[in-house]
Amino acid sequence: MFAVAPMSAGPSTAEFKERAESPEEAQRRSRFLISASASLSESLDYERTLQQVAELSVPDMADWCTVTVIDEVGVARRLAVVHADPAKQELAAEYIAKFPPTEHRSRQLLDVLERGAAALSVSVTDEDLVHAAQTEDHLRIMRALGCASCVMVPMLVRGQILGVISLMRGQGRAPYSESDVDTASELAHRAALAIDNARLYREARRREGTMRFFAEASTLLSSSLDHVSICERLAHLVVPSFADWCGVELAEAGDLRSIAIAHVDTGKVEIARQMRRRYPPDPAAARGPHAVLRTGRAELIREVTEEMTSRGARDEEHLRFIRELGLRSVLMVPLVAGGRPIGVLNLVWAESNRHYGPEDLEMMRELGRRAGLAVENARLYNEARAAVKLRDEFLSIASHELKTPLTSLRLKVDGILRITAKAERSAADLAKLAARVQGVDKQVGRLTELVDALLDVSRVSSGQLQLRLEDVDLVAVIEAVSERFKDDLIAAGCSLSTVVTGEAGTKPAGTKEAIHGRWDRLRLDEVVTNFLSNAIKYGAGKPIQIRVSATKTVATIEIEDHGIGISPEDQQRLFERFARVVSPEHYGGFGLGLWIVKLLVEAMGGKVAVRSAVGTGSVFSAELPRQGKGPGITPR
Ligand code: ADP
Q: Which of 355 and 101 is assigned the larger pLDDT?
């Protein structure tokens, strides 16, 4: 073991003077301290000045000197290793790179760091070196650098231990004495003050920078009401001051969608995009953007190690992407709105070789909150605008639709009034009267249908649509609807055939087949009515076929027409509220029928689908579980 002699934290100046030493010796020491102080007060770049202090310490105070500082995140890091012999500087560089100060087996340096008391090892033997060495290599370098006597002094300020200065002398030089400990302690105290000042200054600058940054961020984030451009602004706001590249992702339909990517090197934006496309983050991973979105907790990877890179890469190509982008440090924070994560801000340090720390985490979390709010506001604003637009469009369609039967009703009623005003009515008048009353009846029927559809919308929107499940024969429902549409089919020139394939197989025409299930009879009627009326309306006078089939558990109804058909893009939105894909001049309708059909079928536990090709016709289908489900409808 080293001969450790813990000393007090540092002698006072009075004590310093009292120590017996030759005047030359005292002069040499004070010259050293003066030049070290001058060096330390020269700049606020303490990393550089500590290197200079280490350089000043050799060869007078030591053959070699190391400076270890506790960094802002509490990790002890070696800042300087300087040897008096330039030939040994390479060894010193190797020492700094390979042997972290915290891994000495003797723990002597850690003791100084923990207790804040100086340690003097007057005589260090080779056995002590063997004992302290981390590895054979470490031993080889320590022996080559030479260590026969050693002093370690803590850098203390305001009760805080900021690091350690270690001075080493080799064989053939006077070993360290207590007066050397005094000098070293005085040096360490001044160095600590310099570090403290520099850090306070940096902190003040950082705060100032943070305030400026947030002021700028707030202006930028509130200057658009389009969430995509907000995300783009956000990405460009943090690059290059807070990231070499940045990606903004938003939660959409249970997934994360990449909205914006910015990179200091614009040439790399495309590489980052390609990597995101080819290797989207794994939604089930315990870490990464999806985990941040799930938990709302930020993730900080201070140092992306080679091991992490090769472990994280999914294949050779992925590895090449990661290497090309050169990830060094990663920070992911949630974009939060209303206390709920709505996206993720990914920040990466790459070429500038910097690292994220706890302060960045705090700052970016705050940015994530502000940006989340801006994105959500923009989205809500646009949703509200779209809803208002949709409502206005709907109101104009609705008034137009309601107006058509009303106009015709008005004409019919006028005709009736004219006939009834006559003093004498002929048989022809009576026949006309009957025809007009029939016309009135038809228009009243149409108005009732329209008003019923409107009522359905308001019921569904307010969650009041309840299902009444009972045993229903689907085939009988289809027959009843077909019967009701007899005249319309004739008027449209469409023939109608029905094929029933029950569990037992197809029955020959004319044989009664029934498919029973637990459904809401009226709603089922509404579903078939909507499908059939559309087939007649858009069926171009061609034959229509209804096919009904059933397995033990599911009944399926398909209605096929050979009319105008629907393009693939329009098929996507047919079942949405107010979706009308044909021109209102040619075909009337609210664009509500299929939306209501979808809600009703889903409420009964089933699903709807469409297959269609423009000009060829369409097949609309509904699959309904026979055991039924419900009640309850959730509109979207
Ligand atoms: P509408 O009452 O306007 O007909 P629907 O919700 O029933 O509303 O239908 C929405 C849109 O789907 C219609 O405007 C029409 O463009 C299209 N559509 C529905 N059924 C068919 C069909 N059988 N053939 C072609 N287009 C259809």
A: 355
- Identify which has the larger pLDDT, 580 or 107: 107
Centroid of ligand 1 to alpha carbon of 549 (angstroms): 24
Cβ of residue 590 lying under 6 Å from some atom of ligand 1: yes
Cβ neighbours of residue 175 under 8 Å, at least 6 residues apart? 122, 123, 148, 149, 169
Task: Give residue 1's pLDDT band: very low, low, confident or very high (50, 70, 90).
Answer: very low
Residue with tokens 């007649």: 536
Nearest CA to 529 out of 482, 487, 574, 576 is that of 482
H helix count then E strand count, the chain: 20, 19
pLDDT in tens, 138-166: 889 889 999 999 999 999 998 899 999 99
Instruction: Give residue 450's pLDDT.
Output: 81
Q: How far apart are CA 60 and CA 27, in angstroms?
A: 12
How far is 293 from 278, CA to CA, in rounded Å?
A: 21
Q: For residue 574, how far is its CA from the centre of ligand 1 (angstroms)?
A: 7
- Does the Cβ of 330 fall within 6 Å of ligand 1? no
* Interval 298-354: pLDDT, tens: 999 999 988 888 888 889 999 998 888 888 999 999 999 999 999 999 999 998 889
Average pLDDT over residues 509-522: 82
Per-residue tokens: 570: 């329009």
The predicted model gives 171-190 an average pLDDT of 91
Residue in this structure with the two tokens 């699959």, named with its chain if needed: 623
Residue 58's nearest CA partner among 187, 223, 195, 161 is: 187
Say if ligand 1 is within 6 A of residue 582 CB.
yes
CB 536 near ligand 1, within 6 Å:
no
Token duo for residue 73 = 């995140």
Distance CA 272, CA 310 (A): 18
Nearest partner of 622 among 542, 536, 567, 554, judged by Cα: 554
Locate 329 and state its tokens: 């440090």
Find tokens 């890469």 and name the residue.
Answer: 313
Q: How far, in Å, is the centroid of ligand 1 from the Cα of 619?
A: 12
Q: CA 214 to CA 363: how far, in whole Å?
A: 9
Q: What is the pLDDT of residue 560?
A: 98
Determine contact, residues 198/44, Cβ cutoff 8 Å. yes
User: Among the residues of 422-515, which ranges form H helices?
Assistant: 427-461, 474-484, 486-492
8 Å CB contact between 629 and 605? yes
**Cβ atoms within 10 Å, residue 336:** 20
Higher confidence at residue 394 or residue 193?
193
**Which residues lie closer than 8 Å to 564 by C-beta, 6 or more apart?**
538, 540, 582, 614, 615
Tell me the per-residue pLDDT of 517-563, one tens digit each, with 9 for 90 and over. Answer: 999 998 899 899 999 999 999 999 999 999 999 999 999 999 999 99
Q: Is 345 exposed, middle or buried (0-12, 13-18, 19+ CB in 10 A)?
A: buried
281 lines ligand 1 (CB under 6 A): no
Q: How far is the CA of 580 from the centre of ligand 1 (A)?
A: 6
Instruction: Grade residue 8 by pLDDT with cuts at 50, 70 and 90.
Output: very low
Q: Are 162 and 70 in contact (CB under 8 A)?
A: yes
